[in-house]
Amino acid sequence: xxxxxxxxxxxxxxxxxxxxxxxxxxxxxxxxxxxxxxxxxxxxxxxxxxxxxxxxxxxxxxxxxxxxxxxxxxxxxxxxxxxxxxxxxxxxxxxxxxxxxxxxxxxxxxxxxxxxxxxxxxxxxx
Length: 126
Hints:
It is a single chain. The protein contains two helices and six strands. It has 126 residues and is an alpha+beta fold. It has a six-stranded antiparallel sheet with strand order 1-2-6-5-4-3, with helices on both faces. The longest helix has 17 residues, at 108-124. The model has no long low-confidence stretch (mean pLDDT 92).
């Protein structure tokens, strides 16, 4: 997927029968925490200041130098506008982002475990 190359973002998209999986990589400009919070702002209600506080950010050990993940399902009452499963990791001067459309529909612990395993594999290939 080449539409973001002019911004320094490398991306790949895989479509399966049940999922759409996205991997993006770019040169780090901020911390993993800043990057994942910025990405998460895209699926919360922008006029609900408490919505960002309803996102559960998980620190993921052993994936790159630092990694965090989010797994949430759409919940209008909490201000979460869409399903989300993403992992952001830092390795050297690079940020790696992984997203899945199917993982939010699994049990949260299983989805986090899958993101962690995928993160290990992806960072090892960077």
